[in-house]
Amino acid sequence: MGKIKRVVLASNNPGKLREISEMLVGLHLELLSQSEFKVPGIQETGATFVENAILKARNAARHTGLPAIGDDSGIEVDALNGEPGIYSSRYAGEGASDEANLIKLVEVVRQIPEDKRITRFICLMVYLRHPTDPSPIIAEGIWEGIAVTEPKGKNGFGYDPMFFVPGYNCTSAELPPEIKNQISHRAQALKKLIAQLNTAYTCAK
Ligand code: IMP
Which of 5, 12, 120, 134 is least surrounded by CB atoms within 10 angstroms? Predict the structure, then answer.
């Protein structure tokens, strides 16, 4: 049995830590929250999801001396040139609540013809071996759907009530969490990241 590798997750969200840790079972990685190390937050100044994910991971790696996983995600509406995109968490203004962001996007989507409401959730996940790692492992997850203007469902968070999932004929807020966690943008990105970690490293079994 090899040594367990400690990796820091560049997030303070306990839900994210739990979800990702569950998927890492078998990889001999121990995932630790950056909040355990009091890692200071950073400004998400990147112009893309991948830049922001790397900024977060680099910040966590620098402050902890550990390899780091960072992620960034959001929702894109085709007819809005990909907005809110990287601004998803602050669409209704800096510090806006999930509810305010949702209400704003519903109002904006109402102006778009019904057949032009193609939308997707995007998640970028990166793994940095150290803060100056020049070749991070990068994985992307994309979940296609349609924006609806009658939000429905109580599960999930953020824009889930307005994200209609055609294959399930309901919004992602109406999906049971165990289904969402298998098919979401985050799940897809994480599966790809894990496959690449498996290939790239001998995370000794
Ligand atoms: P972050 O990647 O945790 O910074 O999330 C960015 C923002 O994207 C969140 O605040 C939500 O507004 C939105 N978002 C990301 N993933 C989801 C999801 O699975 N459901 C609903 N909204 C999401």
Answer: 134
Q: Which of 189, 192, 64 is nearest to 130 (CA)?
A: 64
For residue range 32-49, list pLDDT tens digits in order: 999 999 999 999 999 999
Residues involved in catalysis:
72
The structural domains of the chain, with segments of one domain joined by +, span: 5-200
Q: Which of 46, 49, 52 is nearest to 10 (CA)?
A: 52
Measured distance CA(188)–CA(175) in Å, rounded: 16
CA–CA distance, 64 with 88 (Å, rounded to integer): 28
pTM beyond cutoff 0.90? yes
- How many angstroms separate the CA atoms of 166 and 134, rounded? 39
- Kindly state if the Cβ of 145 falls inside 6 Å of ligand 1: no
pLDDT (tens digit per residue) in 129-153: 999 999 999 999 999 999 999 999 9
Give me ligand 1 centre to Cα 126, in Å: 16
